[in-house]
Amino acid sequence: MASLPAHLANAPSDLPPNACPLPRTGQLAGLLTSIRDKNTNRGDFIFYSDRIIRLLVEEGLNHLPVVEKTVTTPTGLEYKGVGFEGKICGVSIMRAGESMEAGLRECCRAVRIGKILIQRDEETAQAKLFYAKLPDDIANRYCLLLDPMLATGGSAIKAIEVLIDHGVPQERIIFLNLVSCPEGLQAMYDVYPQVKIVTAWVDEKLNEQKYIVPGLGDFGDRYFTSN
Ligand code: PRP
Ligand code: URA
């Protein structure tokens, strides 16, 4: 496999145990380089983000438990294989998390999707909950929680609070995320150590405005409203 420059080759070694970064391949690093570039236009930003989202969804599904399942093949023989143990649903943190719904649907055709509207205050970076609409039987499902950015962790922590209030145990939540940082991962681990975090890349840190650096700016603006 092609090797990466040393500064990109490895995720930080001291991450909390519930953090599951994607393997650092040339492909992944290249896709992220494209969406980090401030000169990337919205069409390309969407295209390359969607490709990373697909990788994240595929990896997230690897964390779901399976049980033995036997089928009969066209040769007439029984095949002792596996199938997913339980039902799943997606929950997107609006607005940016909605960008990940299509990628989830590509892999899980008729998946139910709930929505939680949480917005970070632009001045204080505090996350505020406005609205939640979730599948009625969410307590019996594994939840793939969707948000591309994990900065302070405030938004994801609030969303998980909502899921737990609706009866979802934290060990049945898998958070799918494009870009995270050590501060956000630690904040999540401190409150919800059983929630798995599948993240495409762990960046260096937060800046004074609580933006991830080097980061990619405001994901929601770049995916939904920029030029
Ligand atoms: C962004 C992002 C996360 C949150 C991350 O959303 O999509 O939800 O900020 O920051 P945090 O970890 O410090 O909470 P934002 O509130 O800007 O809204 P948007 O989805 O409409 O862009
Ligand atoms: N939200 C974003 O979209 N980007 C950041 O860096 C932090 C929060």
Explained architecture:
This protein has 227 residues and is α/β, with parallel strands linked by helices. The chain has a single domain (14-222), classed as Rossmann fold (3-Layer(aba) Sandwich), CATH 3.40.50. Helices cover 31% and strands 29% of the residues. It contains 7 helices and 11 strands. It has helices spanning 6-9, 26-36, 42-61, 101-107, 154-165, 182-191, 219-224, and strands at residues 19-21, 66-72, 78-84, 87-94, 112-120, 127-133, 141-146, 173-180, 196-202, 205-206, 212-213. It has a 7-stranded mixed sheet with strand order 1-9-8-7-4-5-6. Strands 2-3 form a two-stranded antiparallel sheet. Helix 2 runs antiparallel to helix 3 and helix 3 crosses helix 4 (101-107). The longest helix is centred in the N-terminal third of the chain and has 20 residues, at 42-61. It is globular, with a radius of gyration of 18 Å. The mean pLDDT is 97.
